[in-house]
Automatic annotation (TrEMBL):
InterPro entries: His_Pase_superF_clade-1, His_PPase_superfam, Phosphogly_mut1. Substrate binds at residues 25, 52-55, 63, 79-80, 133-134. PANTHER family: PHOSPHOGLYCERATE MUTASE (PTHR11931). Belongs to the phosphoglycerate mutase family. BPG-dependent PGAM subfamily. Its EC number is 5.4.2.11. GO terms for biological process: glycolytic process. Keywords: Glycolysis, Isomerase. GO terms for molecular function: phosphoglycerate mutase activity. It is an enzyme of class 5 (isomerase). This is phosphoglycerate mutase (2,3-diphosphoglycerate-dependent). It holds the Pfam family His_Phos_1. The record marks 132 as: Transition state stabilizer.
Length: 198
């Protein structure tokens, strides 16, 4: 239901290209949003660099189970620090057994954004990103130039579209819409790009 509402909220914006992670729920959310926005044929690029942060040994545990196993203080450190990783665990999607901190997530998400998404913005395209809380926190950190401390306080609400409007002296107005999964309202942010890095 939330993805349908999100699609209706952005239906007045012509989306030129959409980006998502390789995870099923992000892809499915994007499909629903585009259908509700009456734009089901938008080109989509999926990439693992937009995947959610990998929580290692915590993957698959809910918050209560994690607290019971490791203690509330330790769980808070893992969830709310910038550069401390949870314990490692080998999985199908993480064969080297590495878990990620927010810093690690940003280290893969921001370069992907700069190399693959930003050029579309520079060319005047409207972009939609359907991803996950931590990968989006990393992108918002970059766009809003947040400090490490500020990004730790940033919560990306599930499904609420965040609409950035970019301006450049040489490029017409364009938009990027990012949201985590599910939806209810929208937030607009304006950014002036003077000399975008590509």
């Amino acid at each position: 239901m939330e993805a349908k509402n999100a699609g209706k909220k952005i239906s007045d914006i012509k989306i030129d290209i959409a980006f998502t992670s390789v995870l099923i729920r992000a892809k499915e959310t994007l499909r629903i949003v585009l259908e509700e926005a009456l734009q089901p044929n938008v080109p989509i690029e999926s990439h693992k660099d937009l995947n959610e942060r990998h929580y290692g040994a915590l993957q698959g545990l809910n918050k209560a189970e994690t607290i019971k196993k490791y203690g509330e203080a330790q769980v808070k450190i893992w969830r709310r620090s910038y550069d401390i990783q949870p314990p490692n665990q080998i999985t199908e999607f993480n064969p080297d057994g590495r878990s990620e901190s927010l810093k690690d997530t940003a280290a893969r998400t921001i370069p992907y954004f700069n190399k693959h998404i930003l050029p579309h913005l520079v060319n005047g395209k409207n972009i939609l990103i359907s991803a996950h809380g931590n990968s989006l926190r990393a992108i918002v950190m970059e766009l809003d130039k947040l400090t490490k401390k500020e990004v730790l306080e940033l919560n990306i609400a599930n499904g609420i579209p965040i609409i950035y409007e970019f301006e450049n002296v040489a490029v017409k107005l364009k938009r990027i819409i990012i949201f985590a999964l599910n939806c209810s309202s929208s937030i607009k942010r304006h950014i002036r790009i003077i000399a975008p890095t590509i």
